[in-house]
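Handout, section 3.2

Students often ask what a structure token actually looks like in practice. Rather than define it abstractly, here is a full record for Glycosyl hydrolase. The first block is the sequence as you would receive it.
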Amino acid sequence: MLTAAAVPGSSAPAGTATGTAAPPGTVARDEPREGESVLVFSKTAGFRHDSIPDGIEALRQLGAENGFSVDATEDASVFTPEGLAGYDAVVFLSTTGDVLDDSQQAAFEGYIEDGGGFAGIHAAADTEYDWPWYGGLVGAWFDSHPAIQPATVEVEDHAHPATAHLGGTWDRTDEWYNYRANPREDTHVLAALDEGSYTGGTMDGDHPIAWCHEYEGGRVFYTGGGHTEESYADADFRAHLLGGVRWATGAAQADCRPEKGYSDLYGNGTGLEEWQQAGPGRFEERDDGTLRTVGGMGLLWHQAERTGDYSLKLDWRMDGDDNSGVFVGFPASDDPWSAVDNGYEIQIDASDVPEKTTGSVYGFQSADLAARDAALNPPGEWNTYEIRVEGERLQIFLNGTRINDFTNTDPARSLADGHIGLQNHGDGDDVDFRDIRLRELTPEAARPAVRGGGS
């Protein structure tokens, strides 16, 4: 929570939380509470969606099942510093029109700047057109929509908790918004519509429909779905909302920096044709698009040599106290130990000494453990590494947070050229990888937005 003080409750208009009476400008709350706390705001000053009660009920159920509390209101007077202080995230559920006055807008801006989270659902993009700050927060404003119809959603991020449960595509029926501008430049797109799968799309074939980003100090998730009442009974859509809200509250971690210019080395239709296995064991390709380590100790390495600066991103998941790693800067070889002796390993291991655990440059430099622990998702959930190599400098980002900053000074090793590879450590070390992608860095791209620590 943003502050230690719990917010006292009050009665509220129809469709809001109920509880003990309290002063105006606050929401009814039962104390004590554990876990994150979420405020659902559904005031409308324009079109009103019949699905709003279904959305409130779904979010309450998700909260009860997953350890976070949910209050709901349509009373904008709660938007004061005191009224918002106890919430980890605010959800705008199909709000429409001008719903906050100037003082309420200022309070909400302050809440986000203090680290509060935001989740916008469907018509949250049809809200506050005369408030530029809000336009930047939500990411894009509504423009138009065709009739409700089935469409195919193409999942772009398989690690974010809002989309990690989905396959490569997601077929569902909803009212599909067109937006006044494409949010891709400033947000991290989680999923986009295939405009060839339905009629009425107007965004020239690049049609984001769910995204996330960090804005003015706070976390922001938006989904264009949720017009229909049926959406809130659909298991996949409920999981989509759950993941987005959990990320917005800070209960789950993900890399929500804008991502452009990456080429697939594995995933999204790119297979293992350009990879080679060195040593025993193997990597098993699974139907869900993941690679799983089998046996070892071996190394799956990419045959293209890297001779310039680059950013390597990949998603990984381990089930328990497993062991693997990502190698960079080693020569081509049929011997997996050549990578150990000549390159550097970015470790994946839940328990070892600091310089040999997750986020470390194995045997050389520990991660910033406080930053690492704050950014790390638990076993069974996906994490994203960015491994950024610039000359002899190696930066490691975990779920968007920099956790290590290492410079090679060993004349016998070099990060400036070599190969990349994934380790299969041995029997019982079960680690999954997916969506391995690389971007060659230009001077303009050489300075990433930095959040968190680093050595």
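Discussion prompt for tutorial groups: The mean pLDDT is 92. How would you have guessed this from the sequence alone?
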